[in-house]
Amino acid sequence: MQKTWIFISFFFTLTLFLNCDPVPIKEDKNPVMESVSEEQPTESLLEALNSSDPFTRSQATIQLGSREVRSAIPKLKKLLSDKEPGVRAGAAIALGDLKDKSSSTAIANLMWSDSENPKDVYLDALTRMKDPSVGNRIYPLLDDNNPTLRLQVVDALVQIGAKAMGPQILNLALKNKDREKDKTYAMALGKLKISSSESYLLSLTKIQDESPTLAAAYLALGRIKAKNANEVLVNALNLPYSKGKENASMALIEIGNPSVITKVFQSLSSDNAETKLYVTDVLCSIPSKEAAKLAFGLLNGKDNKNWGSAAKIVGRQRYREGRIRIEELLEKSSTPERDSFAEALGWIGDKASVPVLRKVLLSGAPEGPYGSAWALGILGAKEAVPDLIKALDLGDAKLMVYALEALGSIADPTSLPKLKSLLADRPKMAPQILSTIALIPTEEARLVIEEATKSKNAEVYRPAMEEIAKRKDKKSIPLLLTYANGDDAEKRKLSYYALTAVTGEKFRTAKEWNEWAKKN
């Protein structure tokens, strides 16, 4: 039995590795990658399904599923009856990846009958399958005593689109007497948008126990766009329960009923910082000219305690009548939360604000430059490119990031020389710099990124490969093929991922890519 669980543990590790996104997606930093060797050809993996070694069979099932090799389906279906639990599990996951719905029933049966594998293995396979017809076999697990499994069941029901199970799930929820399980039911009913569950969900909010169940009920009411939940949700903004405030604000935004604006606005004067934060979110997010007018009224008063929030609301509501007053306050060093005023001008979207924003950007003030850089980017202010380039040299790391993002939004080729020199001077900022360069739609920008892949510094060549993948420019294919045939194992692997992103093809070896290149 110990061997079985070690086997399954390996299987899960392998699954996580092989089913990750083909190109890293993190923007702030790149994951550490180990050197990798050439992968097995698909033909070898198909042969490995007949191996006498269960470890080899299991490894082959996972990789074939990850590669979406449909010719493996008949054999994989037979392996669902393999004597080794790890092989059965691997075959189920692979068939899930291959979306072979003819296997759904067999996998669902194994989930209930296979005592050697945990249920979540087969639940994972069914989730990947995305076959709503097995929803009736999955939803009873919402009543399982394992809280982790229950959460996975919720995700599975959502992923397969099992909305038809709504009445059965609600019926199960109404019979439930366990407050902890109510959280699971609230999540499932909310995510599946079962509108008939409104009364049940409202009943859960009557118990103010500051529990995850209460928070889940608030969120679910928003997801089903409950018609009778406004008062409950508005009141929750003023309660001491932090997660409850957050979820209630999200629910109010999702419901989007302008009738709550006046009452929500009253809570903006709260001394509780969290309440003020979530109230501001609601007033910013529900389209309402009334919210903008009320906030603009605050900006014309003497009490500046809520000016920052008011500026955000005026900006997000794109209240053009407030632009001049916001510009006036932005220029005053005594104005609190000046970054919020600058950002508001970006949201309003009037290029008449560009001169003020350029002035504040390079003012050296502790507040205002960051929001000004962001707003100039949003406004696409090409005339501000020289100022944003100057901001890169002011020695403020935070402002540098904002300026880079703005330059990326503007995408003016005149910024390229500075970005190129900055990349050479600050390799640790390569992800942000290369991301900015990649947004410039010129041949020169492409060549700068390609040149960065030649660096010996992983902090530079990794994000460069990532940006090539994102741009999907077929002119980069020859360079990538050079790396695919090179001696650097990591760059070879990264080139496969990038080639897949650029071409849409899925090959795992240099030989396969070379054969494809000859035909194209």
From TrEMBL:
Protein name as catalogued: HEAT repeat domain-containing protein
Role description: Catalyzes the hydroxylation of the N(6)-(4-aminobutyl)-L-lysine intermediate produced by deoxyhypusine synthase/DHPS on a critical lysine of the eukaryotic translation initiation factor 5A/eIF-5A. This is the second step of the post-translational modification of that lysine into an unusual amino acid residue named hypusine. Hypusination is unique to mature eIF-5A factor and is essential for its function.
GO function term, MF aspect, one: oxidoreductase activity
Matching PANTHER family: DEOXYHYPUSINE HYDROXYLASE, PBS LYASE HEAT-LIKE PROTEIN
Organism this protein belongs to: Leptospira bourretii
Entry-linked Gene3D superfamilies: Leucine-rich Repeat Variant
One Pfam family, short name: HEAT_2
